[in-house]
Write a structure and sequence with these properties.
alpha+beta; Arc Repressor Mutant, subunit A; DNA-binding transcription factor activity; transcription; ArsR family transcriptional regulator; WH-like_DNA-bd_sf
Length: about 100
């Protein structure tokens, strides 16, 4: 099982409507930050702020192309979130902490 602190950090990074939309857009293809400005209808500084948070959480990667920077998903950490959420939601009865507590 993965460290809970790491999962919390990743989930906090996507716990924003704009950042979740960025992740969703990048699931289709790599994009330049200028695309996010147009699609999300938010300012460039605001887009940069959200991209920075996602990069720091290592959910996205940046690659320079001339004077542009293209962003793509970091598939490893995206897969980690998927797997951990799947484990939590499908094994909740088996791993439920409350069943391990005996108040008698």
């Amino acid at each position: 099982m993965v460290d809970n602190k790491k999962i919390v950090k990743l989930l906090k990074a996507i716990a924003d409507e704009n950042r979740l939309q960025i992740i969703n857009l990048l699931s289709c293809e790599s994009l330049c930050s200028c695309h996010f400005v147009n699609i999300l209808e938010i300012s460039q500084p605001n887009v940069s702020h959200h991209l920075k948070i996602l990069k720091e959480a290592r959910l996205i990667k940046a690659s320079k192309r001339g004077r542009w920077i293209d962003y793509s998903l970091n598939e490893e950490n995206i897969a980690l979130i998927k797997n951990e959420l799947n484990n939590i939601l499908t094994n909740y009865e088996e791993d439920c902490q409350c069943t391990k507590i005996n108040c008698d």
